[in-house]
Design brief:
168 residues, alpha+beta, Nucleoside Triphosphate Pyrophosphohydrolase, 9 strands, 35% strand
């Protein structure tokens, strides 16, 4: 399903220090590589989440951030966020707002993630090769579902960061 693409290896500030294949990065948390997340909210304040494809190597069949993907070599995080937003949920020419950057580490991998926010009421056109479904969740629904195992650990961490960022 996923080709063994090349990722840039970066330091904690995002400076490129080398390259490695996806297969090497996913399995070696010492290889910090860049990813992007987009949190797509409706005008009513609901958050679009995606259900990860069962064939995904990382956290299959779990709900995750609206859009997520890796930064390609030579690509800026904003360009990656725009590309992934179009590829995963079919939105083009969106008004992306930079939120924050953080490092996500787990036993499988380490990512330097840049998160953006957008507001859009759809329609969304989910990419069936990449994700199973999308749906909008209220803040209350998300908060009541945290810790149930339905969300990826990365999304649960992202949600906490977002709420902190918002001052909630």
């Amino acid at each position: 399903m996923t080709m063994d693409e090349t990722f840039e290896i970066v330091d904690e500030q995002g400076a490129v220090t080398g390259t490695a294949l996806r297969s090497a990065c996913h399995g070696n948390p010492a290889l910090l590589h860049q990813a992007v997340h987009v949190l797509a909210f409706t005008t009513a304040g609901e958050l679009l989440l995606q259900l990860r494809h069962p064939d995904k190597g990382v956290e299959p069949n779990k709900w995750d951030s609206s859009v997520g993907g890796h930064v390609q070599p030579g690509e800026s995080p904003e360009a990656a966020a725009r590309r992934e937003t179009e590829e995963e949920v079919g939105l083009v020419d969106v008004d992306l707002r930079y939120l924050y950057r953080y490092i996500w580490r787990c036993p499988l991998e380490s990512e330097l993630i840049t998160t953006f926010r957008l507001v859009h009421d759809g329609p969304y056109r989910p990419q069936p090769d990449d994700l199973v479904d999308v749906r909008v969740w209220t803040v209350q629904q998300i908060n009541e579902t945290l810790g149930s195992g339905m969300f990826t650990p990365n999304f649960e961490n992202e949600w906490e960061l977002y709420l902190e960022y918002q001052g909630a």
